[in-house]
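check this one:
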Amino acid sequence: MQRRRFIASTLAAGAALPFATVRAQTAPLPTAPVRIVVGFPPGGGTDVMARVMAQKLATLWGVPVTVENKAGAGGVIAAEYVAKQPNNGTTLLMTNISNHAIAPALYPTLGYVVERDFTPLVLVGVTPNLLICNPSKPARTVKDLVALCRDKPGTVTFGSSGAGASQHLAIELFKLRAGVDALHVPYRGSGPMLTDLIGGQIDYSFETMTSATPHVASGKLVAIAQTRPRRSKAHPEVPTVAELGFPGFDASTWYGLVGPAQMNAAMVQRMNEDFNRVLALPDVAEKLASYGAEDGGGSAAKFAEFIGTEKDKWARVVKEAKVTV
């Protein structure tokens, strides 16, 4: 069966997707509709990244590419689901730090093994978390927040998108480094957590820059600090936790595409090339940059190595902070 092959055409500012199509006989791409499964409700960082990619891939591949949300357990439910799907390229997972790097250290009976049950495809981007709060909160610097947590141990609330999510581990790392106690409040996704943060039901959050940015821009929330070692270009005015008294502090969130285990090597190579092509589109690059997503792209092998490094890092944090879910 003939399959579509797409070649980038002349890029123009604001163009939706500058690809032209030609037929090829052996392009190893799925010809059936493709689903990108997301382990969180709509509105969170992982969901946003998936929808940015899905729209472009649908045009590039000439088949419907939809986003399917399967929320719960910090993305673990979605990961377990995708691990059991056919490896023909029609079901992919927009994975992130939660289910691919943190969950293996948190869940002793996890229903998948990252290295055995998935095929890494591409790293989409790495973003800082933003330490955010409602504008009504009096402690709006890292110094004041640390003092507040010490003054009221175990009572200052920090929301996350779920137990074991990147926001949760950012809280635990912060508690560990600052020597404070605080109350973690897990939600079923960033969307409902942000609603309560804006409404004042919880106090703070280390939320992904992707989902926090629109609320910070609108003035509904205040950004106190960011959590990568260097300032993101999307928020150059927001200092890092590292520069505010905690050198080396790094609690980044990352997103990437994976498929079930043992996908066809030629398909993996072709998909990786197309993902990199989409990430390089000016409008996609601009959108991802506006959310602080940097350092995306590269080979599937590079992404696999990155996942391994992240797993080791967060396993140490889980052990040292004695994190349980």
In short: Residues 1-25 have pLDDT under 50 and may be disordered. The radius of gyration is 20 Å.
